[in-house]
Amino acid sequence: MTLIRSLACLCLALAPIPAAAQVQTADDTLAALAEIGYRLDLNAPGDPVSLSTGKAGMDWRLPANPARFDIWFNGPSERSGDDIPELIVIERTSRSAGTVHVLELGPDAPREILSQTAFITTLNALAMLPPGEPLHSVDLPIVPGSEAAVPPARDRMQALGYSLQHGGDGIDRVFRIRRGEQTVYEVTSFAIRTHGPAYMTGSGAPGMLIEAANSRSFSDLMLVEMTETGIETRFSESGQTSMIRSLFDATRDRVEAGEPVTSLFGPMLDDPMLDPPFRDEIVP
Question: Which residue of 83, 106, 244, 261 shows the fewest CB atoms closer than 10 Å?
Fold first, then answer.
């Protein structure tokens, strides 16, 4: 049995599943998602998990978590009467509890509509929920002592009225942040990488990490956040492309591990390859 297949096939130690029932395998999930134009990337249970449609910036990611020892899937299946299928993702982080994520799989991008910690009995019921059965048929009591779920960064971004726009091929590629009908932030470059939206600094505002090449040798790195009052630049740096790329990767990995990035930049910025005039402190 492959590692990917094993991710969704382990038996439960507590609250056993009836003998006739089977947890959906990851291979089944991969095939079903591919039929509706989605791609699921996963490896070991504790590694990052991503779900995408292949469109730039349009994906859902589950950060790396060493405490996650198993992950299950149920779906995609339409459960809410709106003709949009949902995928149930269950991450196991203890023998008695875990976290369930419900993703709405629209034609352009996945959208997380539920993220909640629950007891294993509830997770079992969600894993076994028949295709087409409404989600509300399973009671979702919150585990005592668990924190209230923070809305996904993309949902928070949309609630504030922001949207992302990637465009252009070859020379003069463009990345824009729009609010309503107005462009409030724009980067133009022949090579652009972005990560986000994600919570990055502990401020509670959704952020975007942007790497833009201004030549073959030098690039810029920006961390901006979308706040209630507008776009705020938390960090801006220019330096040799190899160093900027390393800083982008290190920041992205820190974000995916669920840690704020404010403590990362101090040591990195001591490197003489970075250009001091572009240096700006991160504001938490």
Answer: 83
Contact between 200 and 207 (Cβ < 8 Å): yes
> Cβ of 147: how many Cβ atoms within 10 Å?
8
| Contact status, residue 56 vs residue 79, Cβ threshold 8 Å | no
Per the listing, tokens 């292949």 go with 54
- The predicted structure's pLDDT at residue 62: 81
Report, as an integer, the average pLDDT of 177-184.
Answer: 93
Specify the pTM.
0.48
* Angle at alpha carbon of residue 239, lines to 235 and 244, rounded to 5°: 70
What is the spatial order of strands in the sheet that 218-227 belongs to? Answer: 192-199, 206-213, 218-227, 230-240, 274-275
Which of 129, 128, 135, 126 minimizes the C-alpha distance to 104? 135
Q: Are 38 and 85 in contact (CB under 8 A)?
A: no
Of 71, 13, 12, the C-alpha closest to 47 is 71
Q: How far apart are CA 92 and CA 176, in angstroms?
A: 37
State the DSSP string of 191-247: SEEEEEEEE-SSSSSEEEEEEEESSSSEEEEEEEEEETTEEEEEEEEEEEHHHHHHH
The answer on pLDDT for 158 being more than 90 is no
**% pLDDT > 70, the chain:** 75
Q: 247 falls in which pLDDT band (50, 70, 90)?
A: confident
Sheet architecture: strand order including 70-77:
70-77, 86-92, 97-105, 110-119
Helix H or strand E encompassing 184: strand 182-189
Distance CA 86, CA 102 (A): 7
Closest CA to 100 of 134, 64, 124, 66: 124
Q: What Å distances lie between residue 218 and 66, 208, 212, 234, 270, CA to CA?
A: 35, 20, 9, 20, 17
